[in-house]
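--- STAGE predict ---
source: upstream dedup step, 1 unique chain passed
mode: sequence only
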Amino acid sequence: MTVEPGLNENENTILDEIMEELDTSDFERLPKSAIEAARKHRDQIIPLLIESIAQATERARKGEYVEENSHFYAFYLLTEFEAKEALPAIVDSVLLPGETPHDLYGDTITEKLQGCLAALSNPPFEEIERIISCDEADEYVRWAAAGSYLYLVRDGKLTREEAVHRLKRHLVNAIEKETVPLISYLICELSDYSPHEAEAEIRQAFEADLVDEITINLRGIEESLRGGDHYFQTSLSRCRPTGIDDTIAELSKWASFKTPPPATDSEFLDEDDWDYRDDSDTIRNLNPKIGRNDPCPCDSGKKYKKCCGKS
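--- STAGE serialize ---
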C-alpha cells in the first residue's frame, strides 16, 4: 500500500494494518476494529480507500477476479465520511461493463448506490448524468443513478421540476434508441413525481411496447398522475436516508454478517432477530420472502423493490 507522505512510520504502519484487515476480511466476519480504526484516521486513510477502489477497478477491467475486499468496505466508509473526492473512482468502478459492478459490490448496487451518489455529488451532477447516459453500463447501475435524483430533491439540492426535466430528457433519448430496460426504469423513477410534464413521452413508450410492465405498468403511472402533489410528497417521505451514517450499523443488517439463532421445532425467527455474526456457521434463512424484482403485492404496478420494498 502506498506510504502517505507527512506521516511517521508508526502512523503508516497503522494505516497499512487497517487496509490489510479490510482486504483480508471475508463476508462472514465484519471487520469492526478496522472500520473503527479507519474512523480515527479519517483524513489519512481516505486516499488509501480511494486507491483500493481504483486498483480493484483496474484489475477487474483487465479481467482479473478481485478476491480482496477493501474496495467493498471503502465504498461504505468513503460514503460515511462524505468524501466527495472519492466519487470519480466510485463511478469508474460501477461503470465497468456487464456484471462486474455486482461482482465488486454485490447488493450494494441496488441497495445503496442511489444514496451514495446523492451524498457525494455536487451540482451540476455530471457524474450522475454520465452514468445514466452510458449505454455500456449495467442496467441496474443506470437505474440507481436515475433514482438518486429523488434523494437530491428530498435533500433540497435539486428542484422537482429539474429532476423531472432530466429524467424526461433521458427518457426521450432511450425511446429513440429503443432501450427497453432503461425506458422502464426511467418511467418507474418518473412515477414518483406525478410527472404530468412527461406524460406524453411515457404514453408514447407504452404505445410503442417499449416498457417492461413487470417493472412498471400503465396503471401505476395513471395512479401517480391522479395523485398529484400528494403522491409526490408520499414518494419523498418513503425515500431512504441519503448516504451512510454508520458503516458498521449498515453492514450488520446483511445476512452474511449474521448467524441464525437455534430454531424451535417448526418456528424460524425473522432475519432481523439473528445475532451478530461472530463465527463461520453456514447461514440459512428459511422464511419465504418476496423477491425484490417481483411485482409488489400491493398491486401498485411497480416492482417490490421500487414500492413497498423501499421502506
